[in-house]
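Please, structure for the following, as tokens.
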Amino acid sequence: MEPMRILYISIEGNTRNFVDNLTAYAHQQHEQDPANPLVEGTEISDQTDFAVETKPYFVTVPTYLDGGDGIGSGVTELLTNTLGEYIGYKNNARLCLGIFGSGNKNFNAQYCLTAKRYSRMFHVPFLADFELRGTDRDVHRIYADMVARSAEVLTAK
């Protein structure tokens, strides 16, 4: 069984920490039952060479915005643009199974706005959110979401 793949960008290290915890949790689940899939994270950065994706993947993206209130226009994405460009490269978006968002709830309507914008832009489901580095409960929930979404897509084929 192939690992479930998750592409991410991490500015302050919160998203990287979350993906590391998700990967470790998946490893524990796989050790308990080899039918449980592993998770493989790939960090996208300004130094990443764009490639054509050939296997399904998930995305997790934090929110860094300038301007606007998250409801109207005037929002400018900061620092995470490279991940959006990577998803939009060639036909990469067609293999994206879903997007997870992270952010800080103190930013109200802007919370997870980048992930929600990517969901609309690339026509993929926004699956879940977590705040900052996430909690163990978030890791367990998002792993279950990834497993369920992967099974849903495989069943549909």
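The radius of gyration is 15 Å. The CA atoms of residues 100 and 128 lie 5 Å apart.
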